[in-house]
Amino acid sequence: MFASRKKAPGHAIPPAEPIRRQRAPHYGVEVQQALATAWRAANGVRGKRLVPFLPELIPTLERHGHLSLTDQAREALLMLGVVSGVSGSPAPASGM
Q1: pLDDT tens, 41-79?
Q2: CA distance linking residue 72 with residue 65, whole number of Å
Q3: Over the stretch 2-11, which tens digit does the pLDDT of each residue have?
């Protein structure tokens, strides 16, 4: 049916162009950097696992000098779970 496409030795497929988004980032650089710091402090845990711990983790990182945030950035970080709909408890099992 379809001829298989084999690339010749030494001929690389050109990389795809990066996705260009038309919208501006939702969070500022300060919030993004603070979230990256919190993520590293939590050993790179997945986002949905990290978000429930942010209310405890952010003040701890600030207290130990790893973060220095404005009130606005702190509020944005602590609202991440509320905005994204992530909760600290697993979803209820469906009762079939």
Answers
A1: 999 999 889 999 999 999 999 999 999 999 999 999 988
A2: 18
A3: 555 555 556 6
Identify which of 38, 37, 42, 29 has the alpha carbon closest to the alpha carbon of residue 72: 29
Q: Is 30 helix (H, G, I), strand (E, B) or coil?
A: helix
pTM for this structure? 0.62
Q: Are 57 and 51 in contact (CB under 8 A)?
A: no
Contacts of residue 50, defined as CB under 8 A and 6 or more positions apart, other chains included, come to 38, 39, 42, 57
**Whole-Å CA distances, 69 to 1, 4, 17, 25, 61:** 61, 55, 35, 19, 10
**CB distance 52 to 61 below 8 Å:** no
Q: Where are the domains of the chain?
A: 35-84
